[in-house]
Write a structure and sequence with these properties.
Blueprint: E1 6-10, E2 18-20, E3 24-27, E4 32-38, E5 41-46, E6 50-55, E7 60-66, E8 70-71, E9 77-78, E10 82-88, E11 91-97, E12 103-109, E13 112-117, E14 125-132, E15 135-140, E16 144-149, E17 154-160, E18 166-171, E19 177-182, E20 187-191, E21 197-201, E22 209-215, E23 218-223, E24 227-232, E25 237-242, E26 250-252, E27 258-262, E28 269-273, E29 278-283, E30 290-297, E31 300-305, E32 309-314
């Protein structure tokens, strides 16, 4: 594993940053838990047990998948939280809360929803994404990673990365690598096929990393220590951005020239140009604590927070 050999601390200035307000507010029926954009469609997991599909081009909801109610620890019926969503081909993936705090994994295809992993498996899954049509990559709260074979109905491996609690993972573009974030501040890059650790990224954050983004060889990390880090995996450079509050979310655009961070107690989003190392936009108007920031293209973003409102932003 290579050592970090270059560290750049970026001091934040706001004098030249342009203030931007949302161009559209999209209201869902439940609080937003996770979002994913695929083929001009926005897939939204909510705390009301639904996966909502929003057509970005036509600006309307076109589909809703609703899971059955579950029992909480007191035996009362409730809608399950949808922790993670994804889509590949005709398959939609839903990682949800199960009976009495368990976790369950579903696939919806051709309007039929099938339970793939039951609560009886006792896998405390926190995030799930398709690798291909037959494999799912899982992150467990125990900071274990799993590659699950759908047809064989079994885990191909379960590997513990550290004793720290799992926070998030992100896949690279071809889904051959994943970066896993945890409460230690260390980010592990692993080979998805076999689960082996390729390298560890450290030196940016000293505490829990809430979210990560992995684009064009760069990894953005959003930290509890109020540091936003961007690691260049090609040359070991780190850029660090000091925020005035905990950073709960981050997102890179496709070529990793821009990085967005939840930035401040008022739920603003700061966007930095990684080439000039400058803050260029302040996005103002999010109503609650941010949990998702996604670049649709270089000039358009969508953000979700712990409420029913998704914001669309234009950088034009």
């Amino acid at each position: 594993m290579k050592k970090i050999i270059l560290l750049t601390l970026i001091l934040i200035t706001t004098l030249m940053a342009r203030d931007i307000t949302p161009v559209k507010e999209i209201k869902t029926e439940g609080n937003v838990m996770d979002m994913k954009i695929i083929n001009n469609l926005l897939y939204i997991g909510t705390n009301e047990g639904s996966l909502d599909v929003y057509d970005i081009k036509n600006e309307k909801f076109i589909e809703k998948i609703q899971l059955k109610k579950i029992h909480d620890f007191m035996g009362d019926l409730m809608n399950p939280k949808i922790y993670s969503v994804d889509m590949i081909g005709t398959k939609k993936l839903l990682l949800s809360e199960g009976e009495r705090g368990a976790r369950e994994l579903y696939i919806n295809e051709n309007n039929i929803t099938t339970k793939v992993i039951t609560g009886e498996a006792k896998l405390m899954m926190q995030k799930a994404k398709f690798i291909d049509d037959n494999h799912i990559f899982l992150g467990l709260l125990s900071n274990e990673i799993v590659l699950y074979d759908i047809k064989a109905k079994k885990s191909l491996y379960i590997k513990q990365l550290s004793q720290s609690k799992f926070s998030d993972f992100a896949l690279n573009e071809d889904k051959t690598k994943a970066v896993i974030a945890c409460e230690s501040g260390i980010n592990f890059i692993v080979n998805v096929k076999n689960g082996k650790v390729i390298r560890e990224l450290e030196g940016g954050n000293k505490d829990n990393v809430f979210k990560v983004s992995f684009k064009n060889g760069k990894v953005a990390a959003a930290g509890q220590d109020r540091i936003g880090s961007v690691y260049n995996t090609n040359n070991d450079n780190i850029k660090m951005f000091q925020a005035p509050f905990l950073i709960y979310a981050t997102g890179l655009n496709d070529d990793a020239s821009l990085v967005a961070y939840a930035f401040g107690i008022d739920n603003e989003i700061a966007i930095f140009d990684l080439r000039t190392k400058s803050k260029i936009y302040n996005l103002k108007g999010q109503k609650s604590t941010l949990n998702s920031i996604i670049f649709y293209d270089k000039e358009t973003l969508y953000s979700g927070s712990d409420d029913k409102f998704i914001m669309k932003w234009s950088l034009k």
